[in-house]
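Write out the bound-state structure for iron/sulfur cluster.
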Amino acid sequence: MISKMMTIRSLLPKYHDIIEENGTSVYLNCKKVPVSFEKTQSIDDLWNIHDKAASLFNVQNTIPSSSLLDLKIELADRLFQACCFCERRCGVDRSKTHGICGVQESRIALEFLHYGEEPVLIPSHTVFFSGCTFHCVFCQNWDISQVPCGIIIPPKQLALTIQQRKKEGARNVNWVGGDPTSNILYILKVLQQLDCNIAQVWNSNMYCSEETMKLLRGLIDIYLTDFKYGNDDCAKRLSSVEGYVAVVKRNHMYAYHDGEVIIRHLVLPNHIECCSKPIMDYIAANLPDAVVNIMAQYRPEYIAYEYKEISRPVLPEEVTQVREYAENLGLHQI
Ligand code: SF4
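---
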């Protein structure tokens, strides 16, 4: 558990500065980083300009005629036409059809002030997109993640809603689903319309492509990640994804160097040795300052009853075993 010496505030200092109005959400600064580019330039040229500007992150006092956020939108628009927002890399033109995630245009299933997230995040303005890059057999939100549903909300309208939710007490915007990854272009367009100082939370399974992780750089204050599996076989069997471990580890390293990180791990029955413990070992070795939430609420949902080892609720002793293991590794649990 987080010790008295190491408080949640000291682990997430920039986030606390924003919610205490002593700091600025990084997305607002991204709008003040000037860049020069032409829409006729090749995508390789645009990435070169992007990577240099994102690394220097030279924030000016005024909004430039062309900003790093504008460049990110141009890049995301190019990727949208042959979609590689996640590592499924379907290559479909999303203006015409959807890929494996089921998302063509972004649809919002729900948005509201959420009080059920981690205490440091609530009240959280949670924006639930429909569709998902994963197909988890135990999904608790399967009715929105596996079914294209929800409504299309113009970016400007959602930006106004976010501003209203902030007035109602929201500490952050919590981009989730399903998964937000398929919706990165839409999210960038909302941020372009938004100008209130509110922390941005990327709440994701972290199966994003490297391109998406680069687009997120300089926009996200808190990466609220979901680290599910400790090996590729479990990921393939239960979420139908390939190459899970390498992708998610890579993206956690991006997140850790770019922002502040809260890692969620849902303990699955009978997956302590193959999944929970290797994940905790990895965090201890590579992400020592991340906040870790070991979650105990697993129950069989959706089609989990068809998978014998996860066809029952998780046992309290299984969760305790993982929490003690994490504690012995010195992880910062909440
Ligand atoms: S976001 Fe959707 S369409 Fe794009 S690569 Fe991933 S699964 Fe395919």
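---
Residues 83-86, 88-90, 92, 99-101, 103, 133, 181-182 surround iron/sulfur cluster (CB under 6 Å).
DSSP finds 13 helices and eight strands in the chain.
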